[in-house]
Design goal:
Number of domains: 2
Distance between the termini: 28 Å
Radius of gyration: 19 Å
CATH topology of the largest domain: Four Helix Bundle (Hemerythrin (Met), subunit A)
Mean pLDDT: 86
Number of strands: 4
CATH class of the largest domain: Mainly Alpha
Number of helices: 7
Strand content: 5-15%
Low-confidence stretches: 1-5
Helix content: 40-55%
CATH architecture of the largest domain: Up-down Bundle
């Protein structure tokens, strides 16, 4: 796969998760969408919401990559409303294809999630629920989800295929933002019993759907 194709894949994979966090994403944006301080810098993508903007640059890991990153990063010094984010493309390695789980194991993990929640361990229950959500998605759509998925893409594809309703998708996007904060180290993120219950309800519903359809 050439670099251009890889760059497009990377940006498309980022988009659903950013959208789940409330951003509007523009791939290869026109100059009129960019703040004046960008100057001649044309990022590969930008993500914007009322309180924040992100400039995204896909950089091939090479000898001059660090210099290139530092050159762009200087533009954002002192810019409180904008963040510069680099996504690295490294030499291709083995493709990670994840094993499809059994419905029995999905049900077992769902019971564990409920037990954790009953003991007020909402954070661990919530993260296990997201793992189980991805696993049941992989049973329903094995070709779509054979590789590791972002929460945003899981929601987008399952909604597009009719497995979850638009309202359920909206709820999951709110929960995905909490999941992302927690898993990336924002340990003060508050996870409620209701958050866990909503995840369990979706996982249980999808498990029933998977049980009624032939598993590929």
């Amino acid at each position: 796969m050439n670099r251009q194709a890889t760059e497009i894949d990377v940006l498309q994979n980022l988009t659903p998760e950013l959208e789940a966090e409330g951003y509007e994403v523009y791939l290869h944006p026109n100059r009129h969408l960019l703040p004046e301080f960008f100057g001649n810098f044309m990022p590969d993508a930008i993500a914007r919401r009322p309180d924040k903007g992100i400039a995204i640059e896909v950089i091939q890991d090479s000898r001059d990559a660090k210099r290139r990153k530092e050159k762009f990063a200087k533009l954002f010094e002192g810019q409180d409303e904008w963040e510069f984010r680099v996504v690295w493309i490294r030499p291709a390695g083995p493709v990670i294809v994840l094993e499809q789980q059994t419905l029995w194991l999905i049900q077992k993990r769902t019971s564990e999630i409920k037990a954790l929640a009953e003991n007020k361990n909402f954070g661990p229950a919530f993260l296990l629920a997201w793992a189980t959500f991805e696993a049941i998605g992989r049973i329903l759509l094995p070709q779509e989800f054979e590789r590791p998925q972002t929460p945003g893409r899981l929601i987008q594809v399952l909604a597009g295929e009719g497995y979850i309703t638009p309202n359920e998708a909206d709820t999951l996007r709110v929960l995905a933002e909490k999941r992302n904060k927690l898993i990336h180290g924002e340990l003060k993120t508050r996870i409620s019993e209701s958050d866990v219950t909503q995840m369990v309800d979706v996982v249980s519903m999808l498990t029933k759907m998977a049980g009624k359809a032939p598993v590929e």
